[in-house]
Amino acid sequence: MDVSLYLAAAALLVVLIVFVLKVRRKTQEADQEQRRDVVRAAGPPPQAAEERGAGMPRRRRNMAAVMANRRPQREAVEHEEEDVDEEEQEQNFQPTARVGAKKQKKLEEKQAKKAQREVRKRVRSLL
């Protein structure tokens, strides 16, 4: 009777160990799946198909600022033949969009070079 009791206890322990291992494996798989779901949710959003025809340019986010800067430039080109005073005012024109210090310096240098070219052109036309 003692041997049969030991065998029954051993079988019961084996069944209990197998059951615990299976439950543990399922919980680990569920945890890994949950982690994958969290990583997918936290990752970048899926890219939607672009709604443009073939050969069409991409939509620009800053198009309004670009257009705001182009309008004064077009007006300046149309009114080139006006007085020198108006040209000076246009040279002092500041774009409506924010401009960094580096770009501002570059724009100022560009305006200075343009003014020098105009002076040279006038000198040549007088000679």
UniProtKB/TrEMBL annotation:
Keyword hit for Transmembrane helix: yes
Region of interest: Disordered: 26-127
Compositional bias ranges of the Basic and acidic residues kind: 26-39, 106-118
Domain of life of the organism encoding this protein: Eukaryota
Annotated Acidic residues bias: 78-90
Annotated transmembrane regions: 6-23
Keyword annotations from UniProtKB, A to Z: Membrane, Transmembrane, Transmembrane helix
The protein's name in its UniProt record: DDRGK domain-containing protein 1
Source organism: Seriola lalandi dorsalis
